[in-house]
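Sequence in, structure out.
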Amino acid sequence: MNARNVPWWGIVSSAAPPVLLGAGWTIAASVQSRPYDSVADTVSALAGTGATDRWLMTLVFVVAGVCDVVTGLALRPARMAGRLILMAGGIAGLLVAVSPVHLGDGAPVSHVAWAATGVAALAIWPAAASYRGPGVPWALRPAVSAWAAAVLLVLLAWFGLELITSGGLDGLAERVLGEAQALWPFVAVMSCRHPVPLPARDRLVHECG
């Protein structure tokens, strides 16, 4: 595979979500007319029915989801399985946006199902995108991808534990998870655009094996 075969629009689509999410939930939280705690309250509440200017966070969810789909299309050096899982995570994000929570009444089943699908897909796609061979971009190498997926799964488990136990850090856990999941596609894209040569020992292994 050509490590540089990622178009410019893939850089744009992968760079946008971390910025959009951080700015979106910060601005949306600042305009709420009812009490809102960014550490304890989930991001979904900002796009929920009854939230002030709920269109703002809803739009961010939609754009971020579209960006994940576009990045999956652009990330040609990655294995197709990983690209499809990344795109599925983006589509699930779009469906979360159209299945808002109802403040005071909780989240509908559709919101929970699509949210769970989305965060799970965005946690495991790095492992499915990796492959072995000479000239593999460093973020797509099996060891790096496994570590990335492991960290994302740990963050996902933390968020799930906060939700189950009502630990009071739901919002913080979700924001850390969301930023980490939004950032890794950009890291993968940039590793393809600016590849790091394999160490001499690894090059020898690939050439001999």
